[in-house]
Amino acid sequence: MLARVTSRPGARCVLPILAPLVVACVLLLGACGFLAKQREVEQRSTQGPTAQQMFNLRMLTQNGREPSFEERRQWDEQIEQRIGAYLREHPEKANALDVSTFRFLRQSAVGMDKDQILILLDAPMAVSLDQNHMQQLARRYWPAIQGNATEVWIYPLGWNLFFAGPRLVDITQYVAPPK
User: Fold this and answer.
1) Furthest CA-CA distance within the chain
2) pLDDT digits (tens, 9 = 90+) for 17-72
3) 3-state class of 76 per DSSP?
4) Would the N or C end of the chain have less CB density within 10 A of its end CB?
């Protein structure tokens, strides 16, 4: 049943009051979204980038587009073969508690060795053995990392993977805010 709208004498229309309020809310939300994009990222973590993230980033930078379904399928088969071969060669790793992070999540994590990281993320953009360079990359986390790390592998998106010999011992990420 439809209701009839009638205007009563002395009744005020809510629309002139409501419209500026809605506009103010939309502007406030837009400003919050803009400021959220402007902040820096600085973190220390036990888990780093995933193989999927690095693959997608490589495809974007090399081809200017995301991978197609077929490219994704081929990459998935290749990485699954490489992970399977690694686990067959290292049966002690196949029975480790964190094997699911490597095999199924395909995510770099503290405790992995260099071969596992190379399988997941491919070669780094740069490698450094210089303690001063490592201190710059570790930023405020250097006191906790210092003395443990002998080498750092640098990946895109600000990811820095610190190794002590063959073992990944720390992960940091720093992304400066856009200027």
Assistant:
1) 87
2) 555 554 444 445 555 555 555 678 899 999 999 999 999 999 999 999 999 999 99
3) helix
4) N
**CA–CA separation, 92 vs 19, rounded Å?**
66
- Residue 116: DSSP 8-state: H
Q: Are 152 and 128 in contact (CB under 8 A)?
A: yes
* Buried-state track 82-104, b at ≥16 Cβ within 10 A, e below 16: ebeebbeeeeebeeeeeeebbee
* Rg of the chain over all Cα atoms, to the nearest angstrom: 25
Per DSSP, helices labelled H in the chain are 15-37, 51-63, 69-89, 91-94, 99-100, 114-121, 131-138, 142-145
Residues 6+ apart with CB under 8 A from 140: 42
Q: Please report where in the chains the tokens 């491919």 appear, as a residue.
A: 122
Q: How many Cα atoms sit within 13 Å of 77 on the Cβ side? A: 5
Question: Tokens in use for 34?
Answer: 């803009």
| CB contact set of 44 (below 8 Å; sequence gap of 6+) | 141, 144, 170, 171, 172
Neighbours of 127 (CB within 10 A): 12
Tens digits of residue pLDDT in 13-27: 555 555 555 444 444
Question: Which token pair is 143?
Answer: 């006191």
Phi, psi of 169 (to 5 degrees): -115, -20
**Whole-structure pTM value:** 0.77
